[in-house]
Specification:
The protein is of the alpha+beta class. Helix content is 45%, strand content 14%. 39% of the residues are buried.
């Protein structure tokens, strides 16, 4: 199959499965000339709303922005996106707590967000209802009290709709493992959920997925915008809560249909329990107010 890619045809090569990849298989391909990563799509029905053409086009845009891996080839008929391998350290949550790393992360996000527009948009207030429909239609398990927090989710939507509606090209799935740090800058990889979105979703999702403290979120927002902004920090935290609540259903779908040996239910419940804690926090009402307040 790999010989169907001109850059690999007839080349001696070594293959190595890379860790991660809950919706695709990632294979490092090393040749005498260069190293590549083949992102191999998992076959079967797509219940997660992943558009592989969108991933390809937005990966090219991220490359042009200067923070995405070079896109070498794309064969939708084979279900493979071939990108260049980036030399560097794949970050962990512990790395994300370091101020120097957080500074490079903020710069990487700002660079991506200032690059070419993406093809489509991503909005968790649209994606979450789609995931909910999928869960219900397929009879997948979800937290028994999940819908008890629907009004809180709606309250966030209402508040954020009154603020800045600027959208920028966002990765939307920046787990620590989707950053590669070469010591000078960070590269942003994996554009399955990419789309034009509120930049505060990107920042808030990083906070939520990378285990940052609220102080570290404030530092990330400050470094991103160049100065402390109370309303942007509140907006980012609210978007992080929105992400936790929405990605919970992503985990429920995977728990119901994925063939991978991975505890998707535990993954989902980690995000759900964290979202519930935020909804019930005494900070929640203040966040709704702060997100609307001028600095």
């Amino acid at each position: 199959m790999l010989d169907q890619f001109p850059v690999l045809a007839g080349m001696p090569r070594q293959l190595e499965d890379l860790p991660g990849g809950l919706t695709n298989r990632n294979v490092k391909i090393t040749t005498p000339a260069a190293a590549y990563v083949a992102r191999c799509s998992v076959s079967g029905a797509n219940l997660l709303g992943i558009d592989r053409d969108n991933e390809y086009l937005n990966s090219r845009a991220a490359e042009r922005a200067g923070v995405g891996a070079p896109v070498i080839d794309y064969r939708p008929d084979l279900g493979i996106l071939l990108v260049g391998f980036i030399e560097g350290t794949t970050l962990t949550n512990a790395d994300m707590a370091r101020p120097d790393v957080l500074a490079r992360v903020a710069e990487g996000c700002r660079t991506l967000h200032g690059g070419p527009r993406f093809r489509d948009r991503f909005n968790m207030f649209e994606r979450q209802p789609e995931y909910l429909t999928t869960v219900r239609a397929n009879g997948f398990r979800m937290p028994a009290d999940y819908l008890e927090f629907a009004d809180d989710f709606t309250a966030i939507a209402r508040v954020l709709d009154t603020g800045d509606q600027t959208t920028v090209p966002c990765n939307n799935d920046l787990l620590a493992g989707n950053f590669v740090d070469d010591g000078q800058k960070v590269w942003l990889i994996d554009y399955e959920y990419s789309g034009n979105n509120d930049p505060c979703f990107e920042l808030g999702n990083i906070w939520a997925e990378c285990g940052l403290s609220t102080d570290q979120l404030a530092e990330l927002v400050t470094r991103y915008y160049g100065r402390p902004l109370r309303h942007k920090t509140a907006r980012a935290r609210l978007q992080g809560i929105v992400g936790k609540y929405g990605w919970t259903l992503w985990g429920c779908i995977q728990h119901g249909c994925s063939e991978l040996e991975f505890d998707f239910w535990e993954w989902a419940m980690q995000r759900y329990d964290s979202a519930v804690a935020e909804f019930r926090s005494p900070d929640f009402t203040r966040l709704l107010t702060d997100a609307q307040a001028p600095d």
